[in-house]
Amino acid sequence: MSGMSREGAIARVWRHMRLGLSVVATGLLVAACTTQLGGGTAPLAGEPAAAAQATDGQVRIALILPLTAQGNAGLAAQSMKNAAEMALAEFKVSNVQLLVKDDGGSPQGAQSAAQQAISEGGEIIVGPLFAQSVSAAGQVARSRNIPVIAFSTDASVAARGVYLLSFLPETDVRRIVSYAASRGKRSFAALMPDNAYGTVVEAAFQQEVARHGGRVVVLEKYPHDANQTAEAVRRVAQAASQIDSIFIPDSPDTVPQVAQALAANGVDIKRVQLLGTGLWGDDTRISSEKLLDGGWYPSPEQTGFRNFSGRYRARYGQDPVRTATLAYDAVALVAALVKTQGMQRFSEQVLTNPSGFAGIDGVFRFRPEGTNERGLAVLRVTPSGGQVISPAPKSFAPGT
Questions:
Q1: What is the DSSP string of 190-215?
Q2: What percent of the chain has pLDDT over 70?
Q3: Separation in Å, CA 260 to CA 20, 27, 94, 254
Q4: d(CA 173, CA 378)
Q5: In which order are the strands placed within the sheet that holds 357-359?
Q6: pLDDT digit string (tens) for 269-283?
Q7: Can you tell me the distance from the alpha carbon of 190 to that of 187, in angstroms, rounded to the nearest whole number?
């Protein structure tokens, strides 16, 4: 695959993972478990009293990915497998073994892979990638009190013992609305895609705006139909005098056209603040559109990924897909817990430690119900790419 076509495929995989609901400077993950766990603490109901130590001293981690799936899914899976193996090599944990299983991209394959991995002594499952596969593997794992760290962006498949390490749309919305409110924005409009991603983002947006004392003046959803999109834009334009921010949570395929349509309908794009989600990314289609210059969007800071990418290229001779950091962080976290947390390494108390962990893409922590919280930066669109205007937090505030 040529450099240009591979770069395009990498970008498509990353955005598909963030859109598709079916689906530290050195870069080494360091567990941030500052709270002393154990010490006679009783295990929570439904979790194993202690991780079962294999008779040969090996700690087995199951890695379930759609390795033989067609298209971008298979491309992502292979890159994520490479990243997982790289994490083990860099973390130098000799007693951790990866049990790599292929689910073929199907729920049935994920169920079978989970059963096989557990029968081979897997103490924790990393993956799968797609929502239905996470549900299938999670059912098997929970019945055996085996925790799962999965990669779906669909928060509905999270559960106690089934933790999502992905970038959740709700987290993006929480960060960008919070930042906008801190900068005095109170009256919001929104133009959203009429799809599953838009439905999730809409609910989170309404909730976050209300939580920060703002109001949603107008919210329109558009299908992938030019005429109906134009009508949604016109209705937002009619309310432009009442708003100070317009939220456009869509991909670089669509956002420039929406901005152009708003301007064509008389909206002063330089007066209102444009807001996006992580889908805007660091994409030339966003940065090259003059109307989007100055727009704000949430994202992990890029230093960690750039460092990771350099090491990955040196090892494998090619670029990683953007989601490869998820597999790296999951396996590095497991390795760190094996090193530091003894027999309680994969207990609920350890995995949901409120202090969280530091990874390639910044700090993160798992919530008891299986979703996650991430420390994200806010970036401003410039012609040369995203510029950090609000750094990502380095830790989580106590009690939050």
A1: EEEESSHHHHHHHHHHHHHHHHTT-E
A2: 84
A3: 25, 39, 55, 10
A4: 11
A5: 30-31, 357-359, 362-366, 372-374
A6: 999 999 999 999 889
A7: 10
Q: Which residue is associated with the tokens 């478990």?
A: 33
**Per DSSP, what are the bridge partners of residue 189?**
218, 246
Are 171 and 205 in contact by the 8 Å Cβ rule? The answer is: no
> Which structure tokens are listed for 218?
């107008």
- Do 359 and 29 meet the contact criterion of CB atoms below 8 Å apart? yes
In this structure, which amino acid lies at residue 196? A
Q: Report pTM.
A: 0.85
Query: Distance between CA atoms of 340 and 302, rounded to whole angstroms?
Result: 28
Q: State in Å, rounded, how far the first CA of the chain is from the last one.
A: 46
Query: CA separation (Å) from 156 to 150, 168, 215, 329?
Result: 12, 11, 27, 22
Q: Quick: pLDDT tens for 249-269.
A: 999 999 999 999 999 999 999
310: nearest Cα among 8, 17, 82, 27 = 27
Instruction: Please classify residue 358 by burial: count the beta carbons closer than 10 Å to its beta carbon, then call 0-12 exposed, 13-18 middle and 19+ buried.
Output: buried
- What is each CA distance from 268 to 104, 265, 288, 289, 296, in whole angstroms? 49, 9, 19, 15, 16
- Any idea which residue has 């432009």 for tokens? 240
Instruction: Using the structure block, give the residue that is written with the tokens 């410039």.
Output: 382
Hey, what are 400's tokens?
Answer: 């939050």
- Burial (Cβ within 10 Å: 0-12, 13-18, ≥19) of residue 54: middle
